[in-house]
Amino acid sequence: MIKLRRAHKWFGMTGRIVLLNVLLTGAVAAAPNAQNLLEEVDKHRLGWDSVEVEVNITTTKSWGKKTVKRYLVRVTGKERSLVKFLNPEERGQYLLMRNEGMWMYFPNTRRAIRITPLQRLTGNTSNGDIANLPFSGNYTPQLLGSENVGGVATWVLELKAFSRAATYPTIKIWVRQDNHTPYRAEYYLASGKLMKNVDYVAYEDRAGYLVLKTMQFRVPHKPNEVSEMQFTRIEPKTFPAYWFQKNYLPRL
Predict the structure, then answer these.
(1) Is 139 exposed, middle or buried (CB count within 10 Å of its CB: 0-12, 13-18, 19+)?
(2) Run of H or E residues at 50
(3) Cα separation of the two ends of the chain
């Protein structure tokens, strides 16, 4: 596992954006295409188009108490995700995300219940965070410029949601210029209010390609609480299409 950096406390950063001006300064790297860069970001986040991921989310409170939740996440394409809850007290629960919406299934119920991606899952994470759909299938990117963050040269992308499957209306993401891995992000509500800060903490080398291993979530009103999402196993895998139908959830 490669730890590219350690997360630090940072909130509400609007970004001291350095606008791209290649003609005036040769020190600035050539600007990439925003859509191509976002697709590279997704490859580093998920690794493959169809993938199975075991996820641990550890939330540490300001006084030191820790809570661990475990999930099995299956993502296929850019619009479908299925989450299986693994903790004993949540066994039999499933979360389904498709382009047209999100549903929660509880055992011993007749049908799945429609929910929203912004609803809290555990700690500082939301349902949409664990569903982990690719950004490129749900957001339109715009390259804002470049920024040096603690000595690291980054590109700054602003993402605007166009799909109902998108969890956040707006995302600002800082991408390393040297390898195009996501470095950190800010998630915003429709009102423009900052909802969440995300640090991409560590990556795993998979045959010469870096795939996300650990990310951390913080919210402005609880600065001393952190939820760390760790991908303990990630493998390419294909799944039957009917698994991602809400009417099939009781059979899983």
Answers:
(1) buried
(2) strand 50-60
(3) 33
- Give the gyration radius of the chain's Cα atoms: 18
Residue 36's alpha-carbon distances to 3, 12, 45, 152, in angstroms, are: 25, 27, 14, 21
Q: Is residue 229 a contact partner of residue 218, using CB atoms and an 8 Å limit?
A: no
Q: Report the domain count for the chain.
A: 1
Q: What is the pTM of this model?
A: 0.86
Residue 55 CB coordination number (10 Å): 21
Residue with tokens 């990439």: 32
Q: Is the pLDDT of residue 57 over 90?
A: yes
Distance in angstroms (rounded) separating the CA atoms of residues 96 and 84: 9
DSSP code, position 18: B
Residue 137: domain span: 37-251
Using CA atoms, how far residue 109 sits from 10, 72, 95, in Å, is: 42, 21, 14
Query: Which CATH number characterizes residue 240's domain?
Result: 2.50.20.10
Nearest-angstrom CA–CA distance, 64 and 69: 16
Phi, psi values for residue 127, rounded to 5° = -55, -40
Residue 29 lies in a domain: no
pLDDT tens string 85-123: 999 999 999 999 998 889 999 998 888 999 999 999 999
d(C-alpha 112, C-alpha 167), whole Å: 19
Give tens-digit pLDDT for 213-241.
Answer: 999 999 999 989 999 999 999 999 999 99
